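re the bet — no i am not wrong, look at it urself. input seq straight from the record:
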Amino acid sequence: MEARLDQFANPIIGKVLKHFIAAGRQIAESELLPAATRELVMMRASQINGCGFCVDMHFKDAVHGGEEATRLNLVQVWREATVFTDAERAALELAEQGTRLADGAPGVTDEVWANAAKYYDEEQLGALVALIALINAFNRGNVMVRQPAGAYQPGMFA
């Protein structure tokens, strides 16, 4: 499988992706959210959006960062799994509702927001909102161009 176009070689998309990557770095470097939480959230949104490239990337980055494969294998069924903290569950639920906007859902419910606010302060909630919006943008671009999965190596976009 080949991508429909080379996003980094395309003058417009390439410039935009550089800004997306820089935005992702800002979220990571802020250290407002644990690395594990960031990877779990990005994996879950990518699973929902059907972005194989991002699922592959975030699985590999999480493993490279020391995450357990068991937890990563259970991200898509996090509600039934016992390996996630309450804070991670709140972040995963926020990610799901923030990602499923086009499914006719009402958006993020007050209940889900209040639950996330029990574990994350306002600055951390801002980081979660930015992260969820950013991964959804990456997912949509990759799905549109049919970016193939499997070749990503940790740190290749550093």
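see?? The CA atoms of residues 2 and 78 lie 32 Å apart. told u. also The chain has a mean pLDDT of 95. so pay up
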